[in-house]
């Protein structure tokens, strides 16, 4: 049985929360002031502290500075309203989540169901750091370069909290793997992790897929459908290519992030959800805001904890580790281990990899299949891939656009010209444009191609 300490000066609120906590199998103690809270924690270390900010003898945040008392307790702030400032404040002071008054029984139940002492989470991070030294892996990620170590440090810092994370980086840099690692190190790891590529779902269906719909809400809706927010309840929802959402849908996403509620398509009944959102974009977030692809207010709400993913060309020292990792995976799956020769590694290192780690994996997969022995040489590594950057870039065609051309037309002309330049190789076209392959296919479908 876990033990909860409720630090709340309002007797009725404290009594109500104590009853809710007790109904979920926790013993509960209450404190009406900071002094009383210190006394209670000295007598019994709580597993979780529900901490009101406004107390008669000071601000509740003062307790978070007393690590000898509260350092091994999960802290949940209790506040009168949800805001971006609350999220940032919770992260800065080490709180893992926050509750909004009046306290939702469903939200409190979700928090209690995943109570984990900070020392347990710290031990898991330490274990991953040991793995990094031994196997060059950190969770789902591979690499020991300085740029990746900065990413690992940020993951370790944010995973134990509930704040929203925004991942920015080129296509193929491993943003979903970061999201999965954040989930696996969080208190939500026993709950679902769902990944949604917002650019791969038809604009006509994406709202229904994310928020769900009621039976009969539109033609073809023959039964009720639960969206990703409901299916991910208690867990983590990864929204990839979030800038591909329409402005109208971005407004609804903002509402969920701020209020924790949404409505299914065709319904007027609000649904509560407790989901940690990790969003990602392969565009520069500031440019996406300036161009109107991302609402400024949604950007501020998503950008509570930004993580920038380095492209593969900025972590070249990780290339041999990635090659070894992918070939080991392929060998275990296919039943025949193969390795890259020094000549193959040298040729791979000559390329800038616009498609990043994803493109590297695909190139190795082809070479693995075509190699009959156990040594992968440079024979089956694509020649055009290896020749590209400096020399080829100077030979690329130029595209002239008249001032005043609609942006949709500019985008179409750039996509088609790039596709033509790369000989209709869609994967290389998508990599050069900085979009996912699914997004490219969607655009070509719109153009009737």
Task: Write a concise synopsis of the structure shown.
This protein is 46% helix and 14% strand. It has 21 helices and 18 strands.
Explained architecture:
With 449 residues, the protein is of the alpha/beta class. It folds into four domains: 3-115, Rossmann fold (3-Layer(aba) Sandwich), CATH 3.40.50; 120-308, Rossmann fold; 315-391, Helicase, Ruva Protein, domain 3; 396-446, Homeodomain-like (Arc Repressor Mutant, subunit A). It is built from 21 helices and 18 strands. The chain has helices spanning 11-23, 34-43, 67-70, 84-93, 105-113, 118-135, 146-158, 175-184, 206-211, 228-231, 247-259, 285-291, 296-302, 319-334, 342-349, 356-370, 383-387, 389-394, 407-421, 426-433, 437-446; strands spanning 3-7, 27-31, 48-52, 54-55, 58-59, 74-79, 97-100, 137-138, 141-142, 165-168, 193-197, 236-240, 261-262, 271-272, 276-281, 305-308, 339-340, 375-376. It has a five-stranded parallel sheet with strand order 2-1-3-6-7, with helices on both faces. Strands 11-12-15-10-16 form a five-stranded parallel sheet. Strand 13 and strand 14 (271-272) form a beta hairpin. Helix 19 packs across helix 20 and helix 20 (426-433) crosses helix 21. The protein is globular and about 75 Å long. The chain starts with a strand and ends with a helix. The relative contact order is 0.09. Residues 385-395 have low confidence and may be disordered. It holds the Pfam family AAA_lid_14. The modification 4-aspartylphosphate is found at residue 52. One of its GO terms (molecular function) is sequence-specific DNA binding. Residues 3-116 form the Response regulatory domain.
């Amino acid at each position: 049985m876990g033990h909860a300490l409720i630090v709340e000066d309002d007797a009725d609120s404290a009594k109500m929360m104590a009853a809710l906590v007790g109904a979920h199998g926790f013993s509960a103690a209450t404190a009406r002031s900071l002094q009383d809270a210190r006394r209670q924690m000295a007598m019994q270390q709580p597993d979780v502290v529900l901490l009101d900010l406004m107390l008669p003898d000071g601000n509740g945040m003062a307790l978070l500075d007393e690590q000898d008392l509260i350092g091994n307790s999960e802290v949940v702030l209790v506040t009168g309203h949800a805001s971006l400032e609350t999220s940032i404040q919770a992260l800065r002071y080490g709180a893992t989540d926050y509750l909004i008054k009046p306290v939702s029984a469903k939200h409190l139940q979700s928090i209690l169901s995943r109570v984990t002492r900070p020392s347990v989470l710290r031990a898991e991070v330490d274990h991953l750091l040991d793995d990094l030294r031994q196997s060059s892996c950190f969770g789902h990620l591979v690499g020991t370069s300085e740029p990746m170590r900065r990413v690992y440090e940020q993951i370790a810092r944010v995973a134990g909290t509930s704040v929203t994370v925004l991942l920015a980086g080129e296509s193929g840099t491993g943003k979903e793997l970061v999201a999965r690692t954040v989930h696996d190190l969080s208190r939500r790891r026993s709950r679902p992790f769902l990944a949604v590529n917002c650019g791969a779902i038809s604009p006509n269906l994406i709202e229904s897929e994310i928020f769900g719909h009621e039976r009969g809400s539109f033609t073809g809706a023959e039964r009720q459908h639960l969206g990703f927010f409901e299916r991910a309840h208690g867990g983590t929802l990864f929204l990839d290519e979030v800038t591909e959402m329409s402005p109208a849908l971005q407004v609804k996403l903002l509402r969920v992030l701020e209020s924790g509620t949404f409505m299914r398509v065709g319904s007027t009944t609000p649904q509560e959800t407790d989901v940690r959102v990790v969003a990602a974009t392969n565009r520069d977030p500031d440019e996406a805001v300036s161009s109107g692809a991302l609402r400024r207010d949604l950007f501020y709400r998503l950008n509570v904890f930004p993580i920038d993913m380095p492209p593969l060309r900025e972590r070249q020292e990780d290339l041999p580790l990635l090659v070894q990792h992918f070939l080991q995976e392929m060998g275990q799956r296919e039943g025949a281990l193969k390795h890259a020769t020094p000549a193959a590694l040298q040729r791979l290192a000559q390329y800038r990899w616009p498609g990043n780690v994803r493109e590297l994996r695909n190139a190795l997969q082809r070479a693995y299949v075509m190699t009959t022995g156990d040594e992968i040489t440079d024979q089956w590594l694509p020649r055009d891939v290896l020749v590209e950057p400096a020399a080829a870039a100077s030979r690329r065609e130029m595209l002239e656009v008249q001032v005043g051309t609609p942006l949709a037309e500019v985008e179409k002309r750039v996509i088609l010209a790039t596709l033509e330049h790369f000989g209709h190789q869609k994967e290389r076209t998508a990599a050069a444009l900085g979009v996912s392959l699914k997004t490219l296919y969607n655009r070509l479908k719109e153009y009737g191609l």
